[in-house]
Input
Amino acid sequence: MSRTTAPAQVDQQADDATLTHGLKQRHLSMIALGGVIGAGLFVGSGAGIAAAGPSIVVAYALSGLLVMLVMRMLGEMSAANPASGSFSVHAERAIGPWAGFTAGWAFWFLLCVAVGLEAIGAAGIMTGWFPGTPEWAWVALFMLVFCGTNLAAVKNFGEFEFWFAALKVGAIVLFLGIGVLAVGGVLPGTEAPGTANLTGDGGFMPNGTEGLIVGLLASVFAYGGLETVTIAAAESEHPVQGVAKAVRTAMWRIALFYVGSMAVIVTLVPWDEKAVAEKGPYVATLDHLGIPAAGEIMNVVVLVALLSAMNANIYGASRMACSLVARGQGPKALGRIFGGVPRIAVAVSSVFGFLCVLLSYWRPDDVFMWLLNTIGAIILVVWFFIAVSQLVLRRRTEREAPERLVVKMWLFPGLTLLAMGGMVTVFALMLREEETRLQLLGTGILTLVLAVIGFVLQKRRESRATTGAGTAD
Output
């Protein structure tokens, strides 16, 4: 059997039994493509550039390499056993129910808080366009729209994400095209900058290794969102082929969108220009090139990126919750499915996101900041669970069902161990910086609490099973 041919039978997990398969291949392809283009890239990358200077290109390349390895590992497991619980299901199979519980509910919490943050960001853009309108009204509108979208058939989510992703991809490709022309001195009214901005103003690493480390940490968390495609794949027409295709194109997507755009920006604009931090690197670059209405153009793109992330995160949170409940790791009501959609899980995930918005107004200095700190390093925790799970399941699958390995991790187990080492290194680097140290502490406490709860539930389940078996005997 060829590497791209799906096995005839795939072990669908229990959580997928009544979910529909309404996502088409074009939906899945565009979700995978657009998943790497978020507001963190358009706006958040400015802080990384301010810290690392031109060496931000190296930071994004290093973190991008780590993300590619993680996606390859996740793709291998998801192609072998597609499930809407994705890495949570894999962690349960490889390590134990407590691990699936911890990874799944930590990720659900992350997505719900992220929905609130994205709603706040999108509302801020709208109030800038429509002065005098209250932010809460825009937040409520966005939450209602995307909650409604996800309450309907999954194909509606797919259509929204398809067009959102198409707009984001179009914007980044257009930006890269303009940037490459400007770098080559071909764009009318511009001269080729050469290497002046790369080597001037303090050199390629103006703030030394400390600046590079800060830039590296900023870039790691900008890649969040890629995991959604493996959750969505379980509801696609051809889960195995969909995951395989998405994972195999991850390398050029990351190289083109992240590393490529960072290289264009720091080549064209001095890294320490105030506009890079104040307006965002993409707006600053377009302004530098004299592109009319650059700020408003990028505001539209950022708004689309935020709304796309809201839509995808509500979807991902609801499917993760549904999967956890189906495996006996959450309130049964959350797992109820109507018309192929876990509508109660969608509603609860949306309400939690809206609650995060309210907390940002009521308690911005304590409760809301605590929420932000607790989600600071969750994605790294999830990645570590993915790596450990793949290390265990790869060997198990090779023994029991080698035909399911239609996507294989490169140079196993060497690159899996290298990726785990990279994650440990990032954890260690987070301990060095005061801001990220607080995030690591908050995430650590949340992870520990979830792990203890998951372990207690696992032991109770095992005890009941043993008691039931003894009674039957």
Summary: Residues 434-472 form the longest helix (39 residues). Residues 1-17 have pLDDT under 50 and may be disordered. The radius of gyration is 22 Å. The chain is about 75% helix and 0% strand.
